[in-house]
Model the fold of this input.
Amino acid sequence: MLAVPIILAGFGRGANGSAGPFAPAEQAWLAHLTPPARRGRVFSLNTATGFFGMAIGAFLAAFPGWVHLGLLGYRLLFLLPIGASLFNLGLLASMRESRPIPPKPVSTNRSRVRRRHENRSLRKLVMLNAVNGFAVGLIGPLMSYWFSVRFGIGPAAIAPVMALAFAVTGVSSLLTGRLTERIGLVKSVVGMRSVGLLLLVALPLMPTYSLAAIVYFLRSGLNRGSVGARQAVVTSLVGDERRGWAASLNATSFQFPQALGPALSGALIDQGFLILPFYLAFVFQLVYVAGYWRTFRHLEASALAP
Done:
């Protein structure tokens, strides 16, 4: 009974404060307004604001458990996303989009070669995203539940940890934006995700909730803090006329495999395998990081714009 309203009410929302199914339009819009050399910072700033908002929301989710309001307190929390949605709708209604009509493309040998190069890059990106999406789905959506099962705690203890993790990730996103301008987009992504892999292995081995929370903070900042840089890479792989398509392909190739992950990890956790989902995720994310570096290592921020 709950599944239907949850799906309908969640339409348009994305994980971690993102724009969900409207992310391709958002990313194409940002790319249109931002010079290639600054996309890493701008996309990271955009991602950071979403994480800071998630931090506030997760912190507020702890209040019913702290003040013992019972079901009423948790029901009142639903007013928060309703108010935020109305506020966002008002902002969007007040914005004006500049839509210059691009000249009709002329097919030349150079343009055909460029299009083939773009398509090869997008095909590789789709395969890498599928691997990464499945790995993220194995552990990401069930972390709160995993903490509850592993350490026997409830929302009052879990919500502040999630709030702080989102806040740390927001700060990390801002720092990543600066890092991309120093060492490039691809090196920033690969470096952060590589350290995150080590923390992924360590997280389920932590003996106490406090230590597990600290590792989770660090891993969240490194892994999810690179989202903006990865979005900047995607929108810069193709020309202006295909940025929306590239962003859509990026989102779709990630979301469908991610949907499979919780089904597998949920079954494993139900059977008492609390560590195995993390190790499976490690294998898939290792493949992703190695493949990402192999595919995009020659790209630099200044050379990404076609």
About this structure: Residues 17-70+156-298 form a domain with the Growth Hormone; Chain: A; fold (CATH 1.20.1250).
